[in-house]
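Input:
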Amino acid sequence: MDVAIVGIGIHPFGRTPARSGLQQGAFAARLALQDAGIEWRDIEFAFGGSASAGSADALVNELGLTGIPFINVANGCATGGSSLISAFNAIKSGQYDIGMVAGFDKHDRGAFNADPKELGIGQWYGEVGMMMTTQFFAMKIQKYMHDYNISTDTLARVAEKAFVNGAKNPNAWRREPISVQEIANSMMVSDPLTKFMFCSPSEGGVALVLCRADHAKRYTDTPVYLKAASMKSRRFGSFEVFAPSQALQQVDGPTVDASRAAFEMAGVGPTDMDVMQLQDTEVGAEIMHMAENGFCEHGAQEALIQAGATHIGGSMPVNTDGGCLANGEPIGASGLRQVYENVLQLRGQAGEHQVPGDPQLAYTHVYGAPGISAVTILQR
Amino acid sequence: MACSGQDVAVEELPGRGTLWTWTIQRFMPKTPYNSAETAQTFTPYGVGYVELPGGVRVEGRLTENDPQKLRIGMAMEVVFAPWRIDEKGDEVISFFFRPVE
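Output:
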């Protein structure tokens, strides 16, 4: 049983003081229902997640109390991916014909501050100041730059691209291009990463309507098929966020595992992808994820990025809607934002940020604490 | 843990190793950070993973916070130093990694 996406909806990302996170989620849900030409009462199940804006299933208070199963999902920044794979599995099982996935969030300003207890770590780790996602990403790219000769200029160019793409995306938060120089000279947050190289917690909501592939044409002329959806967590020996120690013998991380599983499920490879949305928590993450997801060899990113290959018009467009850097990071919604963007791309409806050449296959990748990754492959 | 076993033993780790990676925390973290600092007295601090031979890589605060003085591969050793005074007036000690002279 194949699965199709037949409706999509989004609430603009950024800061919307007038609406709660839940209201932004409901806004997106109503647009997705409209896009599919259905009512909330037609939805048979839902999965959703929000890290800071309450329970996702509170959406039924906004949309209607119809008695359906609505399961809340929490997997850090991978929440959107986890929600989607849950819905994918529900339809593939044959148990349901049509359902919704929703994600929304509304975070306070400033860096995320996680509680060590909630991840099974001693309080001391947070007390001495190591419970910071920013440190992990900085240390990981610091090592990567050393091992694979990635330059600081390349870090800045990834952010530059994000803001160029954000300017073309009406739903993005940061919609002004920022120069490489201004990015490099902005306040240092966690060496080697400056302020404009990091995403910021923000607000937003996305919803998708999924159904069995053989029913898709009832709802839309432009169904997008989920050829693969995979999710993996870390194996012993991989270097992940919030790790007080790590094994000397390293293994591949959950991104590599999830990516391989997805390509195998879909029966295609990295060179078949026409557009990619890769977790860009900060510029280093986008760079490293290009290789971890199989799109290039480690170190090849330097030449590719310097040549503009990852821009919308390039040979491997990455984060065409501006990614987390330009949209901010509302944890519950981001993974679904990536899928929303890919559906627009495959429908040919991405306007100013449309990848040329009639894209057929699109890829999403999310990574979240404490070492979880989810990947989808979409096909027109 | 790799094997899901519960029969574990405490191992003493070597006190010297090499700096595997590092960063400098430039802004004062929100709670649960609990030092004796205020927003005004906060000083950026180094954090790194030190590879202890034959053992593991351990994450720790560094005594050095100047990025010009930190290099992947440099020799580091563990030291213990006071972190803060707790509510009962007792000294809370933590471990840090210091560049080997």
